[in-house]
């Protein structure tokens, strides 16, 4: 499959966009007209740069408001078209995108549109180019791709065909199965875009909220399946209008874009194989199989010299044992049950404590690492001493590190023996494993993080949630393995420019008895995140808890939630720089995260971090 990307997806100048597209491995680029018009490069230099970079210029777009107009307006439109066709010849582009008329059409008569498009096709043929007609979802008279197909069929001109855009088809709920009825040689170009499920006007949804495949709610693998069954074998391009992407580093965004297309190819290929579709195959080297991780191998915390003792003390108060230092590396291990926290002592200027890396238990670390590399995740170099267990790592979009490790004997990874004390899981441990990890994400790469978790880690996205915080709404996206063996929560905070943001990373540990864990932590001097009386009064009104149990929750600063499947008890430590810890107990089939309690926690953290009011 030939891959392409529209310059509108990326920030920067036209030259930067071309270079970023080539560096990410795209075969071609579609030129968004405003990018060319605002560039100081003449057409011959743009064509020469593309040739030097080894990419083709596949499409010039958009040409608007052509058909369904008066004869006088048509003459003006044909003059515009001749000028653009001449420009395309100088750029070396042979296809122009024509959007269905939105603003100037005065007639809904298909016969008029057919006649005018046929006359445009004559002009295009005279200039050696083609026109790809696209039904915009908000077109005045043509908004449905099947309607556009009937018009193109009636035009019956070799220079007039289709551009199929997944957004314009799927956003309206049109069934893409009719793509298979369009002759493959009449599909001149295909544009792919995903989008979150939003309820808003189509134009705003399209212009501001498109995302790369795998980052939204559209079934693009199904769309691709219909496309391939039609026999289409031309470029598949990304056309993503997104305010965030147009403000971020074009080279990083282009890599995320290419990852999304590779992932989409894989999904479509697998779907076609399952269906046994005759004559519809993709020439795609299959990615190494990646089954979801079955557990957290470790969590790594980095902190500067003066901050590490706070982490050690808090872990001790939560019941963790000191597993000693590594025999060759400047790291130490703290463990309880199957929960393992590694403190990195190698960077004296690492700053406040923060989650720096996550290790996952996977069946085949080498296959997982190869898959990640194929999906353009940068490899993390790691020095290994003689006899050290290999841990293969890649870098996530938020710059944290992800490592793939083997499941060891009796559930204990082999690398644990490389530490001095080598603690073993205790049968009566009050912490049994890592339940979930919350990772704060920057606005630039939140969507890329979702795609990374889906494609590289084989985690499935769950319904997202907005949580009220003192500085605005926090968008929370859970990514999980089957049965909750691994849960990651990606949080996007609105408070990046606030002096005292409430958003942070945190590690939640599973406990069979949160009350006992809280009592032990209190005996060891843990500083709990304080929860106010209003919260417990509200609990009483909502759940009608036994008075003694409610008083116990209040005394231990425990939080509580309940649904029709079970109960949830949890408590938080004070923040240690950019990280804090949580103990959670799930009773019955409770699978949530205490979402109703999150605003209370966020407000409490905000209060603790905010400067004192002046006297």
Characterization of this structure:
- The protein is an alpha/beta fold.
- A hairpin with a 5-residue loop joins strand 10 and strand 11 (331-336).
- The protein is elongated and about 85 Å long.
Give the helices and strands, then pairings.
Blueprint: E1 3-6, H1 14-23, E2 28-32, H2 33-37, H3 43-53, E3 56-63, H4 71-91, E4 95-99, H5 110-126, E5 130-134, H6 145-155, E6 160-165, H7 166-170, E7 187-192, H8 202-209, H9 220-229, E8 236-238, H10 250-275, E9 295-302, H11 308-317, E10 321-325, E11 331-336, E12 339-344, E13 354-361, H12 365-374, E14 379-380, E15 392-395, E16 401-405, E17 433-441, H13 446-455, E18 460-461, E19 465-469, E20 472-480, E21 487-492, E22 505-510, H14 514-523, H15 533-543, H16 547-556, E23 559-562, E24 566-572, E25 579-588, H17 598-609
Parallel strand pairs: 1-2, 1-8, 2-3, 3-4, 4-5, 5-6, 6-7, 7-8, 9-12, 13-16, 17-21, 22-25
Antiparallel strand pairs: 9-13, 10-11, 11-12, 14-15, 15-16, 17-22, 18-20, 19-20, 20-21, 23-24, 24-25
Brief synopsis:
The chain is an alpha/beta fold. The protein is built from 17 helices and 25 strands.
């Amino acid at each position: 499959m030939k891959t392409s990307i529209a310059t509108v997806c990326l920030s920067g100048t036209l030259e930067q966009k071309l270079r970023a597209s080539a560096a990410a491995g795209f075969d071609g680029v579609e030129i968004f007209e405003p990018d060319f018009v605002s560039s100081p490069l003449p057409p011959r230099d743009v064509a020469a740069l593309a040739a030097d970079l080894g990419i083709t210029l596949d499409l010039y777009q958009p040409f608007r408001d052509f058909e369904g107009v008066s004869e006088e307006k048509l003459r003006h439109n044909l003059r515009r078209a001749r000028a653009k066709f001449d420009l395309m010849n100088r750029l070396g582009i042979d296809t122009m995108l024509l959007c269905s008329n939105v603003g100037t059409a005065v007639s809904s008569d298909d016969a008029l549109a057919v006649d005018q498009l046929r006359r445009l096709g004559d002009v295009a043929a005279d200039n050696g180019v083609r026109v790809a007609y696209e039904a915009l979802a908000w077109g005045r008279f043509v908004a449905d791709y099947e309607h556009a197909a009937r018009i193109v069929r009636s035009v019956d001109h070799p220079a007039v065909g289709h551009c199929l855009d997944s957004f314009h088809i799927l956003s309206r709920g049109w069934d893409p199965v009719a793509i298979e009825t369009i002759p493959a040689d009449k599909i001149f170009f295909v544009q792919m875009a995903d989008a979150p499920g939003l309820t808003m006007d189509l134009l705003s949804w399209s212009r501001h909220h498109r995302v790369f495949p795998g980052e939204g709610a559209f079934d693009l693998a199904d769309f691709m399946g219909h496309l391939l069954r039609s026999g289409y074998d031309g470029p598949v391009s990304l056309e993503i209008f997104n305010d965030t992407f147009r403000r971020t580093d074009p080279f990083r965004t282009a890599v995320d874009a290419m990852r999304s297309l590779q992932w989409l190819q894989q999904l479509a290929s697998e779907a076609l194989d399952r269906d046994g579709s005759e004559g519809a195959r993709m020439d795609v080297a299959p990615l190494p199989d990646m089954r979801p991780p079955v557990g957290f191998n470790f969590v790594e915390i980095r902190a500067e010299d003066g901050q590490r003792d706070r982490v050690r003390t808090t872990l001790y108060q939560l019941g963790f044992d000191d597993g000693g230092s590594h025999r060759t590396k400047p790291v130490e291990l703290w463990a309880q049950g199957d929960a393992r926290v590694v403190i990195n002592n190698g960077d004296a200027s690492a700053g406040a404590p923060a989650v720096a890396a996550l290790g996952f238990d996977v069946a085949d670390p080498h296959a997982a690492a190869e898959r990640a590399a194929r999906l353009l995740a940068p490899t993390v170099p790691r020095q290994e001493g003689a006899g050290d267990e290999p841990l293969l790592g890649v870098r996530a979009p938020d710059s944290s590190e992800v490592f793939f490790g083997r499941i060891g004997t009796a559930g204990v990874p082999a690398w644990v023996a490389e530490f001095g004390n080598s603690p073993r899981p205790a049968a009566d441990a009050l912490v049994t494993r890592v339940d979930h990890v919350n990772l704060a994400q920057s606005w630039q790469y939140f969507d890329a993080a979702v795609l990374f978790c889906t494609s590289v880690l084989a985690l499935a996205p769950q319904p997202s949630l907005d949580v009220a915080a003192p500085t605005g709404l926090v968008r929370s996206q859970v990514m999980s393995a089957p049965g909750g063996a691994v849960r990651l929560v990606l949080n996007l905070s609105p408070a990046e420019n606030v002096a005292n943001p409430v958003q942070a990373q945190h590690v939640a540990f599973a406990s069979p008895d949160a009350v006992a864990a809280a009592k032990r932590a209190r005996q060891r001097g843990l500083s709990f995140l304080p929860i106010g009386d209003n919260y417990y009064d509200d609990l009483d009104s909502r759940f009608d808890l036994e008075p003694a149990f409610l008083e116990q929750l209040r005394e231990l600063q425990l939080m509580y939630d309940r649904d029709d499947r079970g109960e949830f008890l949890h408590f938080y430590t004070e923040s240690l720089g950019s990280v804090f810890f949580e103990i959670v107990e799930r009773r019955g089939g409770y699978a949530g995260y205490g979402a109703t309690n999150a605003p209370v926690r966020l407000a409490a953290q905000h209060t603790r971090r905010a400067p004192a009011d002046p006297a």
